[in-house]
Amino acid sequence: MENIRLLLVDDEPDFRAPLKKRLARRGFIVLEAGDGDECQAVMNDAPVDVVVLDVKMPGMNGIEVLEWIKENHQKTEVIMLTGHASTVDGVEGIKKGAFDYLTKPLEFPHLVQKIEQAVEKRRREDEKKQEVAFKEKMEQQMISTERLASLGTLSTGIAHEIDNPLAIIKESAEYMRLLLSKADHADMPRKSDFENAVGKIETAIERAKRITHQLLGFVRKPETFFAETDLKVLVAETVEFAAKGAEIKGIQIVQDMEGANGILWSDPYKIRQVLFNLLTNAIHAVESDGTITVSLKGTDARVMLIVEDTGCGIPKENLEKIFEPFFTTKPPGKGTGLGLYVTCGIVERLGGEIDITSQVGKGSRFQVTLPRSRKACGDMGDNKELCVDILNKIKGDPAK
Amino acid sequence: MIRIPAKVLIVDDEKDFVEMFSLRLSEGGEKVFTAHSGQECLEKLKQENIDVVVLDIKMPGMDGVETLKEIKKRYPIVEVILLTGHGAIETAVEGMKQGAYDYLLKPADAGEMAIKLEGARKRKDAQEERIRKAEQKSLLRRGGNL
Fold it and tell me: CB A163 to CB B107 under 8 A?
């Protein structure tokens, strides 16, 4: 038992002092209070784990102090001390939320045992709370993942269905194009109008095709290719590639790559696609004279690739939606609304995750965390057993 | 030089697609036949001496891959170009292992289609040429033995 904070509340200093000494020897951190007021002052100063509380005190009596503790410091456990003849007080204390009571004169081993039990109860309650909070968080995540997954299934289905009529439109347009180019149509009336209209159809077909192909190309698992990858090299290459677009807008791309080792075992092509998507987004978000910073952080197990911009930022109401397919704030024809959806899918497939922080008018920060090796994929950290257990519970719950 | 038109069989359950595609290919000088199912495709192959089959992978009933296997069993030197949705490239790869000449993503580009048709047809011509030569040789040898 380490760092357990104990508070002794008793109006007799001669009773407290030796007890404090003996308890301190057992490794507890022992605080003292001579009455209810002092007890409140000590507890308001810093929370304690267990209070050993005498019932009979001048001023506020023990039951009153107990009521105050349970109202203001619910997590603190209280052990009541009663006179030999007044176990009634102890029972009343338990009714009011005390952990237990002991009768004076005290047997020291009993007291230590009670304190340890109280601490144990507190620990269990903390754990339970953590578990509840964790479960809630997991459920939230599952809901959003499932939502994305079903959106994905739906949109790929639609994409497939659209490809077929699109093929017919394309064939028809190409047939018209061919007919228009024939010699016997050279003198056709209003030929250029027809050509113009066919041209519009062709452009629109290309646009629709881009959407369906992007969507289908991502969802069907294109094979991943794992190799030793140096993020520093990869970032330098990708930034160079994206720099042209940035230069036109007068945006500076800063590389701050010395924060960590950039070597990892992953799919360089996929990471490049992720980085390129993030850089393209950043370039779109930043007005002229802005800055985009690409930086690197890491631990032994993970690498964090961060793309920060001084752009327009993402409003809170959009933050939840930006990973959904077809969510875009760009005008029709400019963005497919698939960039981040695809990016997020790739990162997940590589065993990583994306975090965003953004402030409207200040800029956005995208952090991609990737495992250094494939072993670390799906690593849930220290809570692995708990995670698996809770996941099973959630999955197995028929109400869900 | 007079170009001999290739005999192309288009197989797809989308009738409008087949119609427009065949119109365009005919206009471009090919001799086009059409079928709307795997079964119909095999019948057409029985009647006509087809060079290249353009075959949609996704069809109700006998699907593209089954049809392909049947074509290759009965007419091994007929070339097949597969038409596939973007999501089904694996199926196309599988098809090429079964002997298809190549594949195209739907909606296919006219230019790419022309190139692949030409390539398929050339491969078939070359194969037939080799067969002819081999036959001649075997005939000559037999003649020598007499």
Answer: yes
